[in-house]
Amino acid sequence: MGRMHAPGKGISSSALPYRRAPPSWLKTTQEDVVEHIAKLARKGLTPSQIGVVLRDSHGIPQVRFVTGNKILRILKSNGALFTLILPYALSLPQGVEIELTIVGLIIIGLAPSIPEDLWHLVKKAVAVRKHLETNRKDKDSKFRLILIESRIHRLARYYKTKQQIPPSFKYDSATASTLIA
């Protein structure tokens, strides 16, 4: 399959083992892996960084083979359930006042608020825009920035249809640096 903004047709990818069972030499239990994932997520690591740390430091080749779930699904299910109680006063005409209490449940998980690939594209666009502030004549970077931003818009549209980001999400280059902060 061809690339979106490049002439290449490379099909290189990693070769996963056919057997989906955890390796026989792996002594780590499913609960230990989930604890490691939650601990690393609380430190602020992204799901792909968590996978690299588990592979390199703890010898866990594929989290999915051990736990049955991917890292992002584990992070989403590892959330805390909070009850939100908001007092709300409503004034109606003719001096009638109604006081309500709004009760809602909020699930706060350890998963990132925007998907990782979209976050990295926004980060790259911010870096290129910062480069263009000092190097205004760099036409190639300006062209690449247009390509990056069109990828951001395309990915944001996809995630809105899949309800992974709120429908009100809009990429704006002026406020993009606050997204990655």
From TrEMBL:
Coiled-coil ranges per UniProt = none
> Which regions span the lipid bilayer?
none
| All residue ranges annotated as the Small ribosomal subunit protein uS15 N-terminal domain in the record | 1-60
Gene Ontology CC terms: cytosolic small ribosomal subunit; nucleolus
Q: Which UniProt keywords apply?
A: Ribonucleoprotein, Ribosomal protein
The GO terms describing molecular function are:
small ribosomal subunit rRNA binding; structural constituent of ribosome
Q: Which InterPro entries would you find in this protein's record? A: Ribosomal_uS15, Ribosomal_uS15_arc_euk, Ribosomal_uS15_N, uS15_NS1_RNA-bd_sf
Q: Which Pfam families match?
A: Ribosomal_S13_N (PF08069), Ribosomal_S15 (PF00312)
Sorted alphabetically, the Gene Ontology BP terms of this entry are: translation
Q: Into which family does the record put it?
A: Belongs to the universal ribosomal protein uS15 family.
Name-wise, this protein is: Small ribosomal subunit protein uS15 N-terminal domain-containing protein
